[in-house]
């Protein structure tokens, strides 16, 4: 799959009306497993969600004439929406039966599904809750490996874990679009290594003027329209 990133005035994540709003709207569903007895660590859940988006984008079924390719193209022609819902027990088992890909991190499990119409959620996913994805880290994450991609979160915004999962997924996708075919293949072959960290205020100011891919949220939930949420710092883009 190839994709040309939108021009600065026509970002799929910005809120100003554009021709993208006239296209049928699709959403990429992600479901995170949150068992009461063993919830995942927040950073691991964020990183696993971001990798799940990349794995779907790089999957043969999402490219060319693959069975998910048309849905992915329709989704990319409109606003790039992602919705994260939570599941446990039987809910998680039912979600596993739908077409999709499950990614497993150190503590987290996230299943990503091919895009669906905004109002066309399967009943197995429609009943899952959006709220409640409040997670924490048992201890602060270590400094990231700067030779690998880092998705930097805005330190001045407060978002739920579910919202942050969607935002880092956006950041990973923007990095994917910005890379050359060779760099994409190298990332895929390596297993999509990445880290998610919250920037310091000073570093965030540098990042937002660096020219690296920057996510500006459409403001449908939690935060104001146009808020800068994530900068995707991939070594190949520096």
UniProtKB/TrEMBL annotation:
Molecular function in Gene Ontology: peptidyl-tRNA hydrolase activity
Q: Which Gene3D superfamilies match?
A: Bit1 (3.40.1490.10)
Q: What is this protein called?
A: peptidyl-tRNA hydrolase
Upper classification of the source organism reads: Bacteria, Bacillati, Actinomycetota, Actinomycetes, Kitasatosporales
Enzyme Commission number(s) of this protein: 3.1.1.29
| Enzyme class (EC, first level) | hydrolase
Entry annotated with the keyword Hydrolase = yes
> Which reaction is this enzyme known to catalyze?
an N-acyl-L-alpha-aminoacyl-tRNA + H2O = an N-acyl-L-amino acid + a tRNA + H(+)
């Amino acid at each position: 799959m190839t994709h040309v990133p939108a021009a600065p005035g026509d970002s799929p994540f910005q809120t100003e009306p554009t021709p993208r709003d006239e296209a049928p709207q699709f959403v990429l569903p992600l479901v995170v497993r949150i068992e009461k007895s063993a919830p995942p660590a927040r950073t691991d859940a964020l990183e696993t969600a971001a990798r799940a988006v990349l794995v779907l984008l790089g999957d043969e079924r999402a490219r060319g004439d693959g069975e998910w390719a048309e849905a992915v193209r329709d989704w990319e022609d409109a606003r790039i929406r992602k919705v994260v819902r939570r599941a446990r027990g039987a809910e998680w088992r039912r979600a596993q039966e739908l077409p999709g890909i499950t990614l497993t991190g150190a503590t987290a499990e996230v299943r990503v599904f091919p895009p669906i119409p905004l109002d066309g959620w399967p009943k197995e996913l429609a009943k899952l809750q959006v709220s409640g994805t409040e997670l924490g880290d048992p201890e602060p994450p270590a400094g990231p490996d700067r030779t690998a991609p880092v998705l930097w979160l805005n330190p001045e915004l407060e978002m739920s874990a579910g919202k942050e999962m969607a935002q880092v997924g956006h950041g990973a996708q923007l990095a994917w679009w910005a890379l050359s075919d060779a760099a994409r293949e190298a990332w895929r072959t390596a297993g999509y290594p990445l880290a998610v960290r919250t920037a310091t205020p000073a570093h965030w100011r540098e990042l937002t003027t660096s020219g690296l891919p920057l996510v500006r949220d459409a403001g449908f939930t939690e935060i104001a329209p146009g808020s800068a949420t994530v900068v995707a710092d991939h070594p190949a883009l520096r």
